[in-house]
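Quick one, T. Sequence first:
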Amino acid sequence: MPAQPSPEVLVISASHGENLALAERFVAAARQQGAEAAVLDLTSVDLPLFTSRLKGAAAPAALAGLQARLVASPRWVICAAEYNGSIPPVLTSAIAWLSVQGSDFRALFNGRPVVIATHSGSGGHTVLTALRLQLAHLGAQVVGRQLVSNRSYPAADDSIADLISRLRHLSAQQP
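Structure tokens:
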């Protein structure tokens, strides 16, 4: 993964298409508020599926770059489609890989301010519930408001701007 500047807000897209487009809208809103922001498209990161058999093996080459980008950005937005009522496999696998690096599985996430959002072909609430539970378990500060959008209810610009504002007002807490 090539070196990237460290934005104040890193918007992580866990699928392409509508969620990647939603991620770009979050970046635009952050920039309108004067924040450096960038998109990280997880579907373009070459990580193998995490399994317990790989835990003791050498980390994939792409993992160090991914981890460095995440560490360098104090605030995240995660845009994830609903996959079978839960979190997209690419995001679950990335979190699993990241959580087995070092001696503290929460280290990367602990105290990190995070907004969660979805553009879903279905309801979208289930993925956000599952994601909120996982991120809270990892110690992240998940913003109380979340964004659910779909074809019938597209994301409103003022909702995206409000979420960026809320995110920017949270300070990263150190464990």
